[in-house]
User: What shape does this take?
Amino acid sequence: MKFYPLQFYPILKERIWGGEKLKTVLHKPIKSKITGESWELSTVEGDVSVIANGDWKGKSLTDIINECPNEILGTEVHAQFGKQFPLLFKYLDAREDLSIQVHPNDELAKKRHNSFGKTEMWYIMQADDDARIIVGFKEKSNASDYLENLKNKTVLSILDDVKVKSVDVFFLETGTVHAIGAGLVVAEIQQTSDITYRLYDFERIDASGNTRELHVDLALDAINYNVVETQKEYTKKVNESNTVVDCPYFTTNFIPLDGAITVSKSGKSFTVYMCVEGTFEIEYNNSKLQYKRGDTVLIPAAMNAFVLQGKASLLEVFIS
Assistant: This one.
């Protein structure tokens, strides 16, 4: 069987805070003015990605993993996770602030939801002037102090507020209270989980006049009340894989591509490329496939040699 780079139909999600930049910036086929997320690679139940190119077009990601787990996932990923695809890849457009939220760790998520936890990272693709994010506490806190501020609607005063610009990266371990701020387009890499505890939603109401559900009680023992460092500094050496995040759940490298580089892989893990700027090609088996900003491509583990060529900024993600 010939394996090849796989692209998937985007799974588009309307959100109360979403906008139109997934179309205007990333060329996604959105049909509403409040599209907040494009799920690029997912095996979340009810939202499984479907292949958009090549011989496997129309098959789901779970279909091909079930058929060829070692060749798609990689030998070590298959050994660790079985036939589960352990990561979820998204692009987000925040026209308004997202809710303030937190994600549980693996232990809590398994106990309560039979799910993975949700460690994640953000790469800022586009930022309006004065755009910011909320990450963690300004000073060490605790549950009672947090609840008192929540009751008094002063919770924003104890949370850290960070101005951001394009190419900034933030790594959020489970337990970190956070929110993406208005005016940002973000590439997000995370564990396969859709478990979110919403803590505060700026008193927003939806089109029907309803507020969204909060999960304050569930969140109390999921929150890390310590001050956290989330921003990641990283090198940007041209035509090299510059490590940005290396954690137990995924490794992400930043590749400033200008020309051509030959890539060799061991077969232990799949690789995913998110094109966050520019255009590039993948050359393999005397074939060339072209990609642009906003494209996401899954390289099956069985593809252990190929060439990246073009002028682009790429996020390279795998499990080590």
Notes: The first strand starts at residue 11 and ends at 19. The chain is about 15% helix and 40% strand.
